[in-house]
Amino acid sequence: MGTPISQEAEMFSAEALNRHPIGAFMTQCPDPCQAVAVEFECGHCCKKACNARIVGVGGGFLSLAALSPCPGIVIKLFGEEGVIETEYAQCTLIRLDRVCNIEIGFPVNASPTCPQV
Question: pTM for the whole thing?
Answer without folding.
Answer: 0.71
